[in-house]
Structures are given as structure tokens and as C-alpha cells.
Amino acid sequence: MAQWQEVSEKSKLHPKPVGLVLQYGTAGFRTNADHLDHVMFRMGLLATLRSINTKAIIGVMVTASHNPEEDNGVKLIDPMGEMLTPAWEVYATQLANAEQDHLITVLKDLVQKESIDLTNQEAEVFVGRDTRSSSARLSDAVLDGVTALDGRSKDYGLVTTPQLHYMVCCCNTRGGYGKASVEGYYSKLSQAFIQLTKSAPNRTDDQKCLLVDGANGIGALKLREMEPYLQGALKVSLFCDGTGGKLNHQCGADFVKVQQNSPKGINRCCSFDGDADRIVYYYSDDHGRFHLLDGDKIATLISTFLKELLTKAGLDLKIAVVQTAYANGSSTRYLEDTMKVIVRCAKTGVKHLHHVAQEFDIGVYFEANGHGTVLFSKAAEEKIQQLCDDSEGERQGAATLLKNSVDLINQTVGDAISDMLLIEAILAIKGMTVQQWDAIYTDLPNRQLKVKVSDRRVIDTKDAERKTVSPAGLQEAIDRLVERHQDGRSFVRPSGTEDVVRVYSEAATQVTRLLNHLYLNQPLH
Ligand code: NG1
Ligand code: ZN
């Protein structure tokens, strides 16, 4: 077939380095930008086939998120704005690793397995990219892949990851989710934010101003574009805005979360990551001590707010919070015991959390690192709308706040800009300072580190990665250590994005055994 001939010819312009093996991991492909040209071309091909297969628009985002500037990566977006379905992740890996002379065979196999009819089929792919210097040429390679299979493409250029998810969802729902343009995105979110904050008419200037660390990336650029739409309802002071510093270097959500340190000594502030799908908040207290409000604190604030509104509105909707093993034990305890909300634990990676959150009327999901959002079931959205129309007084007020929250939230994926606006609105409506928010519960002291081992795949886990099943004896050894500490909890798991094993532990105190031995006369063993 002439089509395969063309793909074969064009693929020679994007040659695969012989022997290079990559995997479509937790967040797509990620590695040094110099090794990705062939992967991008092939993901253009894959997205086109997926588009024919689903009869819908598919998205391709070129970014390596919080990784260093030298890296890059790519992830595919499925029709409703969600992450690529797992079965196709396997195809993505096969396609990326096929040696040059096997590429067509692998493609034909896929076409056959998925019964894709290549004759007279329309395909459309949306492409977006972050601000990395390599991203423009790599997104051109994606576009080449789409063209090679006669697909149509729309290049959105520089956009945040969540913005591209939003575009895909808007178009596939024929405008049902919003207008598929950056202006549409800014208008929808800004209007919802302005409506929400009308419920807090006495906001002080202090409450209206927020410092934002843009990680020297796309989030900074887009937030600046969005400011006029907010009509002064939020005054953003951007730093690490890409005008001087390097992407994600000593700034951004991952740096702040992992180093537990702020890029500057500051009051209420938040940090995005390199593609603006993560956010963390923080402040320094009077003693200059740094306080982090991570994804767990964000999930707590949002779920508390929503639950209170449900009660006021008299709406009987099932709300749950979905976390991962990295959620601080204090947050889980507070949510279950004090807030009385259902808490579920999912495997690391937002696609797993997203999936679990879909089981509830309202599913709030956040990874501790600040990646998350809220999902509302169709039925929940309809009930909220109905109450807005049919009720009055306090019930209608609560229903309207819920409706505006739905509009402000990007339900397709975690979105730093949308999350930030929601948090700012909640703080304003509740008249809460960042310090009061922080005081809802106190994090258990915790540590996270990574260990290089020769083969991380020897570690196998169960129970949402909280227990190991192999190698033999490892779990027992962890259990023996953990049981010696009050509120102790620890787990190890192989990373899905780096060639390392991650180790996490937390306990009621961080006093070392040596100090216990010296001062409390406890045994050292
Ligand atoms: P891995 O490398 O599998 O731990 C990391 C993050 C995830 C998620 C992905 C994708 C931690 C401990 N892990 O996954 O939460 O965000 O990257 O970016 O932060
Ligand atoms: Zn990211």
C-alpha cells in the first residue's frame, strides 16, 4: 500500500538510534531530548491510528514536566482529555523500540489487532508543547508522523499540559466542556473564579495578592496571558517567570516539595512545575521556618469545602478523596476520622487516581507532590444544576458555589492554574489564612529518598504499592523496623519514571535512635 511506502520513507528522516530501548512510563516517554526525534515521529503515527480507532481527536503533548531543561518527553491524550488507555501504552512502547526495518511490521500488527480500517478514515491530532528549547523541533517531528498517515493536525504551539487536555475534551464533546481555544479556557476559568469570589466581598488586598513561582516554564507565560481575564480579582506576582533562570532549576513545584525549601524567603506563595500540571503552596513563619502545603493539604482544603457545601445544599452525594501511598498519615487520619470522608489509596501516577475517583459522585484526587483535580459524575453535575434552578436561600447559595466550582475545575487532568484559582477562592470564601489552612492537621515527619540498584524490577508490590511481595524477606525486614516506631509507616517501590527505587518512611517523631539511647536509655539495636 502506498501509505506504508510513505511512512517508511518519512521515518528515515527520523531514524531510531540502534539498540535504544525506552518505555512509555507513568507519564509517557521521558529522556534526554537528543534521543527522542524518532519517538516523536512514531507517536504522531500512533496518535493518528488512535484517532481513527476512537473516531475522536487525540492529543500529543511534548514536555518533560518537572525534569531538567535538557530532557524532553511526550504523552498522548485520549478523547475525553484523559491519559492514554493502558493497552495502547504497550503499543507505544513497541512502536518506539522497533528497529528501523521493523517499524512497518509493528504498525501493520497494531492495525490488524485493533481492526483499524485505514481506507476513508478521518483522523485528527492536536499537538502542544512546553518552553524547552528542544520542544519546537520535537513537536514538528510529531506533526510529520501525523501527516505521514494522512491525518489532520492542529498545532496549539506553546500551551500547558492541562490546556491541551482541555482542548481535546472540548472538541470531542462538541463544545460541551467549553470553547476549544486558550481564550475559551481563560474565559471559562476566570468567569467561574470571579463568580466564586463574589461570595467573599470583603477580601483584603493581602488576600487578593499571590506570589507564583512559574518554574521558568510555560505556566508563567500562560498565567501572564490570563491575568487580564481575571479583571483584578487576583493579583499575581510572578517570579521564576522564564525571563532569566533555567527551567525547573532551583525553582518549581518539584524542587520545593523535594527540597522542602522555598526559592526565596516569602509569605503565601505557590509553585508550578515545568508544564503547569502540578502545584504546591508554602510560606515562611515568623521564625523563617518553611511550611509546605502539598497535595494532601490541598485535597483536604478542597474536600472540606465541597463537603460543607453539600451539607448546606442538602445534597446527598458520595464524596471521596483518592491518595497514593505517599500521602502523609496525618492527612489520611484527618480525612477519615475528623472529616468522615471516604479515603482510597491508588498506585502512584495520576491515571490510577483518576480511575478510582471516577467511582464516586465527587472524587477529589491528589498526589502528595501536588498533581490532582476533582471529578464530578454527570449525575452530580445535573443535581447541582437542578438545585441552582429550583431552590432558594442558603440552599441555592451553596448550590451556586458548587456550580461555579465545577466550572473552575479542569476535570480532565491536574491543572496548576485551575487548582490555584480554586484554592484562592476557597481561602477567600472561608476567610482563611494560609497559616490557618496549614494548621488543619500537622504532617508526620517524613523522608523520601531514591536508591540506585542494578535491577529495580526485582521489587514487586501489592496493596497500592504499600507492601512488597518480592524479593522474599524484604517486607518482613521493613515491618520489623516500622513496628519499633509510633505511627511508623514505610514502603519501597520501583519508580515508574526513573531508574531508581524510592524509599518512603514516616513516624510520629524524628528523634533518632541514638538520641533515644542517650537520653531515654532505650536500647540501640
Ligand atoms: P515515580 O517515578 O513512579 O515515583 C513520579 C512521581 C509521581 C508522578 C510521576 C509522573 C513521586 C514519588 N512520584 O513517579 O507522583 O507524578 O512521577 O510525573 O513524586
Ligand atoms: Zn508536570
UniProtKB/TrEMBL annotation:
This protein's pathway: Nucleotide-sugar biosynthesis; UDP-N-acetyl-alpha-D-glucosamine biosynthesis; N-acetyl-alpha-D-glucosamine 1-phosphate from alpha-D-glucosamine 6-phosphate (route I): step 2/2
Active-site residues from the entry: 65
Binding-site list for substrate: 367-369, 493-497, 502
Pfam families: AMG1_II, AMG1_III, PGM_PMM_I, PGM_PMM_IV
Domain Phosphoacetylglucosamine mutase AMG1: 183-280, 294-431
Protein name from the UniProt record: Phosphoacetylglucosamine mutase
Family recorded in the similarity comment: Belongs to the phosphohexose mutase family.
Primary enzyme class: isomerase
UniProt cross-references to CDD domains, sorted A to Z: PGM3
Cofactor: Mg(2+)
Domain Alpha-D-phosphohexomutase C-terminal: 469-510
GO biological process: carbohydrate metabolic process; hemopoiesis; UDP-N-acetylglucosamine biosynthetic process
EC number: 5.4.2.3
MF-aspect GO terms: magnesium ion binding; phosphoacetylglucosamine mutase activity
